[in-house]
Amino acid sequence: MTLTLILKNIGPYQQAEIPITPLTILTGPEHSDYLYLLRFIHTLYRLHESYGTNIPDLKRAPKVKQYPDKNVVDLVATTALREVYERNLVNRLESYLGVETSDLRRSKTRAAEIILKSKTAGAYLKTNESGELKFCESECPFPLELFAKGPKKLPRPGTSTTAFSSLISGAIGIWVITISEGNLPHSLYLPTNRGEITNVYDQELDPAQNAPIVNELLEEFDGCSFRNDHYDSETWKEDENNLIRTSSHLIIDPEGRYEIVVRTGDRDIPPNETSPDVSSLIPIFLSLKYRHIPGEVFIIEQPEEHLTPDQQIHLARLFVRMVKSGYRVIIGTQSAIIIDEIMRLRAEYLNDPTNADSISPDDVTLCIENKMEWGRGLFPVELKKW
Question: What is the pTM of this model?
Answer without folding.
Answer: 0.62
